[in-house]
User: What shape does this take?
Amino acid sequence: MGEISMGKFDVINSRAVRVDASDKVRGRALYVDDMKMAGMLYGALLQSPLAHAEILNIDTTAAQRLPGVKSIITHKDAGLVKFGVSPARYDETIFCHDKVRHVGDNIAAVAATDLDTALRAVSLIKVDYRELPAVFTVEEAMAEGAPVLHAAFPRNITAEVQDEFGDVEAAFKQCDLIKTTSLVNKRQDAAFIEPQGCIASYDFSGNLTLYSSTQSPHYIQRVVSMVLGIPMGKVRVVKPYVGGGFGPKAATNHMELAACLLSMKTGKPVKMNFDRQQVFMHGRSRHQFFHHMTTGVKKDGTIMALKHDCYLNGGAYASFGIATVYYAGSLLGGPYKLPAMKYHGYRVYTNLPACGAQRGHGGVIARGCWEQQLDMIAQELGIDPIEMRLRNMMSAGDVTCNYLDMSSLGMKECVEAVRDRSGWKEKKGNLPPGKGIGMSCGFFVSGAGYPIYRSDTFHGTVIIKLTEDGGTALVYTASAEIGQGSDTTFAMIAAEAMGIPLECVRLESGDTDFGVDLGAYSSRQTLMTGLATKEAGEDIKRQVLEVLSEELHVPVEDMDIKKGFIVFKGEKPDITALRTRYIKEHRGWSDNPAMDEELSFREASRMAFLSRGSIVGKGKYKPPILGGQHKGAAVGTSPAYGCSAQVVELSVDEGTGKINIEKMTDAHDCGLAINRTSVEGQMYGSLSMGLGEALFEEVKFDDKGRVINDDLAEYKITRALDMPAIEPIIVESNEPNGPFGAKEVGEGAIMPAIPAILNAVADAIGVRIFELPLKPERVYMAIKEYKMKKEKEKGIEGKTLAGSSQKQA
Amino acid sequence: MKKLIRVTVNDMEYEVAVKPNQTLVDMLRYDLGLTGTKNGCGEGDCGACTVILDGTPVSSCLVLAVQADGRAITTIEGVEGKDGLHPLQKAFIEKGAVQCGFCTPGMVLSAKSLLDENPGPSEEEIREGISGNLCRCTGYLQIIDAVKSVSK
Amino acid sequence: MSLPEFDFHAPGTVEEACRMVAGFGAKAKIFAGGTDLMLDMRRNRISPEHVISIPGIEELKTLEIASGMLTIGACVTVARVVKSKEIAAKWGALCAGAKALGSCLVRNLATIGGNVVSARPAADIPPSLMAYGASLVLKKTSGERVVSINDFFTGTGSTAMGPDEILTRILVPEPPPHSGAGYVNLGIRNACDINILNVSSYIALDGPGGAIKDARIVMGCVAPTHVRVNSAEKLLIGEKPTDALFQRAGEAALNAATPRGSAYSRASAEYKKDMVKELTVRTLAMAYREAMGR
Assistant: This one.
């Protein structure tokens, strides 16, 4: 545990400079809107101003007449092939034909010679609507006789999940304390700084190339192919640099499909972008969750059972929602020993923009609800909340009641680290009023165990080709660098696996021509693409050593490649002939090796080429069959789980209710840190997002279903002045199923943030809050009510001298 | 009707014909091809389009291109000097202050303006100096660290 | 989303600007810092045929203190006010308001005049100007007039300024000895936030340790315009400053506030009223501390 692995590796487990940083600090890195193509047209979307309405007629004649307009498309051109995220719930078409289901639903698109013309044309398209009654809340949507968004889904239920593991009711009978609480959040927005954009280019040989700000080139390629009826081999999706994703960019959007169709119609490249308002109208970020949980424990704090109900306000389409509603239940299986768990979840359609996946998919609010409840239980039992968590903690090799296998689990180490480094023992219970300290744990998948469509596909394939001159390895992967640093991670893994320095690796990613990779979601790439990369690197090493073995008559197993040089385990063979041959090829070159130098990888890989032609290494990864047999068992499975613990210290201004987060101590078990700087970057970023969600963030709607804060002024994310000091602690548990022991950090690190803040706030003000965000008003009102209640109690207590000394309401 | 303006960008003089309703960020990106200046919100909220206008960092989406007539602008492309990267750029690379990179140009320009005016800012002043630039990836701490490392 | 089409004008002098304003009337909008105007145009809330850009007019950028009067040109940026040591020393509450406005990027463009003329009840500059008893110089082709900022705001987004007038400068008298002021704004985040509520308070003492002889309390976000709290001011005058007195003044402010507080506003009426009290008490305490120190 800890940093045992330090020094074992030559490239990984270090602090590497990102391979893309030099371009990014110069403003040279190209994002999709930075690209321009000859003859390029500009597209714009016509989106619904109404939340629920029948489309009676679409009249494009005035728009057609506008000079500069090249193509206008509606459902008549686009067809009605349904798509979405889960094939079981394909419920979207490129354009609406019968009715619109949310403000921002897509009706038509225009391509024109410039953006202003395209926008003007859009404003000239006349749509006749018949407004329908709309539903915006879960209660409205599920009410008897409520308007239905999708005919096939009565009561607007996208998906209903019922699971029971163990016997919850029987377990409750053995409990000394049973506690019920709830938590509700508000819909979030991922608020990546780069709005979605794309350029589609259809050529006259029938090939379609789509450049897009996406998290998953592969999924987009599949949907484009399916919806537009073009063979996958003729659809290429390329991801330039992407300005953040966090979930919503993992699914195909209508703009991508519209741009493709417009390019096919016009024979010209077509660029389209969302503006910030459209980012909000498209949505696909974190759902609003209504959690209701009952937990039973023994006197000593042993957790016996959890009964959990949850409703998700999902918006107009399913998107990732089925996975979301399953995750919301399944991710409570760990990291505590929990013998029995019962879950009932509903994902509900409403006339709002669709929700989807966002960092910590499905599990964040559930974790918030449960970890606050566990804190309350600890308090009632008089057990320190950290002690209670440690008593219940799983350890490596444990399997949860819902069949999730904790193949490695540095959870205990994380908890102890944050406890000791934050000074928990001295602070907890000893802080002045208005100051609080709180903690929480969390865990998350290192990649979904199954693809989003049912398939035996590899989740990632990687090809490494050595340049024919030797010395440079070209790594090709379709994985998605979206800011998290995956390109650097895979370049490092490849270098380590081949035994060469990082500078000798050149990596290209994000292009479906490079292979299959499911992309950047579910914290999957480090483990999954990482394993494929490692396998490809080892394949290269084997091939190079095989040729050397033939040349030098040394068995392969007696050789290795390290730091770019060949290492001979036994006696060093005579390399004179080989080196002479290499130098002869390079007459006049200034960097030829001297005769007494070690044999380099560059020479060896040149020999390999001369002997075998192009040296290509291949790697692939597919998880083994994981999880249980119950319905929905796939969601939550993963080859490994990352975990984390956090302590938050804060103060509350009781006069205004304003919270000031002062310090966060965060420990994350990422198995093994490939790039320590990037691991810490993911931890900081997760905490920043968790802080924003806990304190500020909520997408608000008016009574017509329009987003009223569709900008980054009124949708409030964390700014530099809001960030507390953070002490990051990396814990390394050496995951057996990960590349060199590595597993996730990208999403797991957000899990404890909200509950740790909730618990710290309760510690500061003496009262629990069950609704997010913790904006000043909510906190102030909670304090006010609590004080009034206490005043009243004091009156009674004064007479009886009894009453509880409990701090909690 | 387009208006011809004369503007100095990164020490180069340009004559550009711009429409009255064109924003400075659009002119820089689409007319001059200086795409290092990013467009994140169009409403002055995110700071991705930060440029230094006559010595002052501003959101170039809130400035009309015509208003740049006769003025001097530094974009991210002009930060690198004859001797290579600006110390801030180096520090951003070394400290892990770059993730998706979309906020990076604006962030570097805000930080540069801050240091040009106040070479030894306190941490609070650094935070204040980049408070107009949103970053969703890093949580800012590595950025603050980078700026601190080149402060005097 | 792009901007509507308009003609652009950049007058070189105030006189020229006045002529344009008079000529175009309601078809024109003045571009000072642009931080509000650009959003209104982008969001299609307004689409002027003419945009008159004035930040280039030198005369509107004067910032001077002479014979007991601070004169701020309408196009002085908020950032300049934040950085002015003289303003911080004598008009601390104005400086605090300026510092609270947006981010440093916004402050570099936004002008003091713009923040006043746009007449938004959540604006950061007007409360302290009102507390200090500022007046505004409005100019048109036929001459200029001076109006008290107290009489300037007529509603959200509307003012006493005529369609042919331009705000040229703001006059803020130097606070007398033994006086002080405080400004507090409450947002959700630590910076760059639109206010839930803001209050500025000013008191002048009748000598050190003396009674309060003058008081002005201004609150924002509780009515269509910033409002003075006359009842609280009256209650203070003639009294010796104490915590209990400030509490009573806060209570009076709470009672005077009539926030609407709908499902869509930034806070409920109940919270806003409670915060009026809290911030009134806090700003009075700040004002008192300053008054005792000078």
Remarks:
- Residues 667 and 729 of chain A are 4 Å apart (CA to CA).
- Confidence is low (pLDDT under 50) at residues 1-6, 801-809 of chain A.
